[in-house]
Amino acid sequence: MSPAPRACRSDLEGSHEALEPTRDSVQLGRAAARPGRTGGRRARGEPSGIPEAARAGREIIGGGSKERCDVAQTWGGRFREGTDDALVRINDSLPFDRRLIRHDIRGSVAHAHMLGRTGILEASEAEALIEGLEALLVEVDAGREIEGAEDVHSWVEAELTRRLGPVGGKLHTARSRNDQVATDLRLFLRDEIGAVLEDVRFLARTLVERAGEHIDVILPSYTHLQRAQPVLLAHHWLAYVEMLARDEGRLRDALDRMDECPLGAGAATGTGFPVDREGTARDLGFSRVARNSLDAVASRDFVLETLSALAILTTNLSRLADELVLWSTTEFSFVRLSDAVTTGSSIMPQKRNPDGAELVRAKAARVSGHLTAMLGVMKGLPLAYDKDLQEDKEGLFDALDTTRDSLAILERCIAGLEADTVRMAQACRGGFLLATELADALTRTGMPFREAHEVVGRAVLVAEERGVDLPDLSLDALREICPEIDESVAASLDVRAAIAARDHVGGTAPERVREEIEAWTARLA
């Protein structure tokens, strides 16, 4: 019979306010993901802070120290002394892994079903465990505080034992926390990645809608942040839709590769009980079981792959955010962001700062940092499970939250912005945006492009010296530079003609862009 887990400390509370009030932010979710720490680090030799009355009666399950350590945990029989407070601070994971509580209970229900189905436990015992777990889930959904244990798994087992007595300790039969947490994390990521995918598609739909509204708006495209060629604003928005589609693909790839159930792998080598791993996998919605027990408990490449996909996604978002910051400056004045995504200055009354976009731009580095940290954790880690793997959660949780916040902010930025179409059109009158058009027109007459490039370069120099743009040069002035320039060649110096000329797949011609808008509208419906 498994010993009853100990009861636990209560200094594990904290709060983190979610961006969207509709998101799950009870104690088990983001609200409990970042607990506060009370007090500072004590010096060596100082008292631990545990009251003497509690220390005198300390009892660890299964024998060992006779001191009391109000922390529910599932081990202790071979220890003579209590755990040092410094280790407790970094070892206890309940402050963040309680976010997995629903998935832990769900996995435990499936495990209990399997224990009863295979005869490992009596049917009545399995049923009692299932009923207890389901009742506990109801309390959790109602806002039950999750505190007083080493980790989320210990808390669940302690609660079951408190309610059911010794039968509660039978839940962990044929299971280790190693395969348990690997399963919990996969279940959690299936849900969380699904939510990120919904947010990605929401932003993509908004971009497509704005593209439809801006199909006739022309602005300069940029290379090296210098004006390059005219482009439709709609085409520009759709570029980010393409990026988001690839982001979606990477996340779906990650989901596919993590779609295997580790339960039954035990601590490292499997279990001596006649478990039905395939049945448990089916009950939990996995398409397959993990085929190697060592790999099942020791690998976190599914976490790395998720973090990688999130890092690329937020990096793409940072590019859009940066353009919104630039475009909303007085120097550009291409867009005006709504009050909902801007803030003011404490000293300069006139300021409207694009803080939402700026923070999205910065938070991409934060998500990339979590990926880098996890790569460092995994580097050189021997098989099978090591406590290092406990570091897989906090960065992952924060990366998921940060990504969803970034997607929400940018969607609101795009949905609420006003495009200054007049200013965009004016910007197309400077920077020699039509230089390539003139070179292409000369090439069509049979002139080698490299020679045409040289001719137009001289024309740009003349226009620059005169303080005008290329279309402002007279036909005579152009012929002085190159006699082959006639009226048909000079006619290429027109912004809308330049746009219309890009009439091929992937080009910015209006009809091609309309086709893309229709295709994306159907795809994202």
Mean pLDDT: 88
Query: Which parts are unreliable, with pLDDT below 50 for 5 consecutive residues or more?
Result: 1-69
Specify the overall morphology.
elongated
Terminal CA distance:
55 Å
Instruction: Give the oligomeric state of the chains in this entry, treating copies of one chain as homo and distinct chains as hetero.
Output: single chain
| Largest sheet report | 2 strands, antiparallel
Count of structural domains: 3
Tell me the strand order in the biggest sheet.
1-2
Examine the coordinates and then state which fold CATH places here, giving the name of the CATH topology of the largest domain.
Answer: Fumarase C, Chain A, domain 2
Helical stretch tally: 20
Quick overview of this protein structure:
Helices cover 54% and strands 3% of the residues. The chain is mainly alpha-helical and 525 residues long.
Description:
This protein has 525 residues and is mostly helical. It contains 20 helices and four strands. Strands 1-2 form a two-stranded antiparallel sheet. Strand 1 (218-223) and strand 2 (226-232) form a beta hairpin. The protein is elongated, with a radius of gyration of 31 Å. 41% of the residues are buried.
Task: Please outline the helices and strands.
Elements: H1 52-56, H2 85-91, H3 94-97, H4 101-117, H5 123-141, H6 152-164, H7 177-213, E1 218-223, E2 226-232, H8 233-257, H9 277-283, H10 293-298, H11 301-327, E3 335-336, H12 355-378, H13 394-416, E4 418-419, H14 421-427, H15 435-444, H16 449-466, H17 475-481, H18 487-490, H19 495-501, H20 510-523
Antiparallel strand pairs: 1-2, 3-4
